[in-house]
Amino acid sequence: MIKSQSVVFFLGAGFSAPFGLPVMSNFIDKARDLYFSDPDNYKSVGETLKLITKYSSVKNYLNINLHNIEDLLSIAYMESAITKESSSMELVTDFIKVVIENYTGQVTNESRDFAELVANVSLKKTGSSASYRVQGRDHYAFLCDGKRFENTGFGIVSLNYDLVIEKALADIASTAGKFYEITNRPNEIAKYFAASNVRSETGVPMAKLHGSLDKTIIPPTWNKDVNEKIYNDWILASELLKNATHIIFLGYSLPSTDNYIKYLLATSLSDNQRLKRISVITKDADGQTGIRYKSLFDSY
Questions:
Q1: Which residues pair with 133 in a beta bridge?
Q2: How confident is the model over 160-191, as pLDDT tens digits?
Q3: Residue 285: CB partners within 8 Å, gap ≥ 6?
Q4: pTM, whole model, 2 decimals?
């Protein structure tokens, strides 16, 4: 008997970078390029760049990288929490959304391939009785016919704000569900190609620990528990990690500032009796990422 396997992809910014998205270290540079390409259209980006200049005086006292969007977001959040003025936080949040939206390209074959993998849905084409001909082409109704990998389940824990995976899932659902669209019927397969931050019988379980463009964006380092909009994401992340048989880190450098990730892993894996393998796929130019992973997972 083949026991069921549970594969969890743990995604960092390096996963989205090949699709044109900025990573944390070059986010500000990408934002400057965007602003100076059309200052009138991206005024809010310009205002945030001014805010960075204001914060730059802190570098006289502290070693903070204001070209890292995570540090910038955390400072703005702290300022808003202390002063009870939300303007800085709102400005930075909008800044992040504008930059990510403008650098998000079209759905690619690669993003579709990944989305198809994690959706793990086998589609069955119905007969000619459930087809519709448009401009000389037959469009058939597809239905779910089980899993592509019958004994395997997939889940995602993501630290990214972007919607690369969600857009790829929606594109698959739209393409495969064209019959339903042109016949004005509910798309019967869309529910299988949608991300969900709670466990369900359909859809892709996907926990976004820092929030998302379509929900809320929060600082990556503290006060996760105060925001109800991502509470389910953290619960789901813990459930996925507790039951994982294989965890694959993609494009995540495990920075030393992400202690909360270490503690999430510690809490979740302490209850995991099934984990067999941990894999890491990410760039490591100076060898430090490998050292951090070996230090954290010294038994794997």
A1: 138
A2: 999 999 999 999 999 998 888 888 889 989 99
A3: none
A4: 0.89
